[in-house]
Amino acid sequence: MDPATYLASRGVLYRRSFLAAGFTVAQYRRLAAEHLLVRRGVVVHREAPPALRTAASLGGALTCASAAEPFGLWLRDPPPALHLSFTAGHSGRSSSGLIRHRRFGDRPLAADPVLPLPEVCAHALSCLPPNDSVALVESAVVLHGLSLSDVRPLLGHRHGAGALSALNDVRGDAGSIIEVHLRRVLDSMGLRYETQVLIPGVGRVDFLVEGFLIIETDGWQWHGNREQWRRDMDRDTASLGDGYVSLRFRAEQVWSAPEYVRSSITSAFERFKWLLRNS
């Protein structure tokens, strides 16, 4: 790998690790002249995201919500403040607006501007609202094969019972962030349900609640094309013919109007409770 590719693949270059990888001082100096020398021995690619640049310049590492983009994790909205981890200092919001997170076990920061995935998830569980933290950790399991056993030991008493409770809500079977949020709505209602159920003649559905109520969490805007939306509408029609009832919620309804979602589900049960008796 040539020096330029090495920097482009990482976004940030640390002199010591760069030289340890077999590159030369002359190559380091050339990259430092062509890109951004933010601190002594730390070079940031000139096209690196601002968050990565700030983390490297402050000697910290991205974590919690700010590490969602580098890892491709599910997060509804970009964080309004930058979440950085440092080996020293107190946790919490700093005077500059940063959200500071202490590393677990006071381990030194490695030559990487983003914390390891288990620590990112542990910080999210102890910092973000449950809906957001559960979705973020769920995506780490689904997309990266994260083992929750690597996260659980990091959550001590100082992180609160809420962090452990949120971790227990992670199941690793969701297909999208919307499914995670709707799953939490169904849990709050005490309903029995299955996810990603294959129904003959209908296809695979997001949720099958109490054996008869199909709930989907998409639409043509969510899938990105109208043809998929049409297929979904045809599937809804087929499900009615097979004795199922279908509800479909848009992302903004699940996120912004959970009470509407609850009331719609409750109304479906009241109207079609005879199906429940026969299921």
Overview of the structural elements:
With 279 residues, the protein is of the alpha+beta class. It folds into 3 domains: 1-48; 49-168, no CATH class; 177-278, VSR Endonuclease (Endonuclease, Chain A). The protein has helices at 3-10, 15-20, 25-34, 50-58, 68-71, 117-127, 130-144, 160-168, 177-188, 220-223, 226-241, 251-256, 258-271, 273-278; strands at residues 12-14, 36-39, 42-44, 61-62, 83-86, 92-93, 99-102, 193-199, 203-209, 213-216, 245-248. The strands form 3 sheets. A 4-stranded mixed beta sheet has the order 4-5-7-6, with helices on one face. Strands 8-9-10-11 form a 4-stranded mixed beta sheet, with helices on both faces. Strands 1-3-2 form a 3-stranded antiparallel beta sheet, with helices on both faces. A hairpin with a 3-residue loop joins strand 9 and strand 10. The radius of gyration is 23 Å and the shape is elongated. The termini are far apart.
Short précis:
By secondary structure, this protein is an alpha+beta fold. The protein is built from 14 helices and 11 strands. The chain has a 4-stranded mixed sheet with strand order 4-5-7-6, covered by helices on one side.
Task: Tell me the β content.
Answer: 15-25%
The sequence of SSEs as H and E is HEHHEEHEHEEEHHHHEEEHHEHHH
Q: Quick check: average pLDDT?
A: 86
Count every beta strand, where a strand is a DSSP E run of 2 or more residues. Answer: 11
Query: Biggest sheet: strands, sense, closure?
Result: 4 strands, mixed
Coarse structural class: alpha+beta
The strands making up the biggest β-sheet line up spatially as 4-5-7-6
Fraction in helix = 40-55%
- Structure annotation, total helices: 14
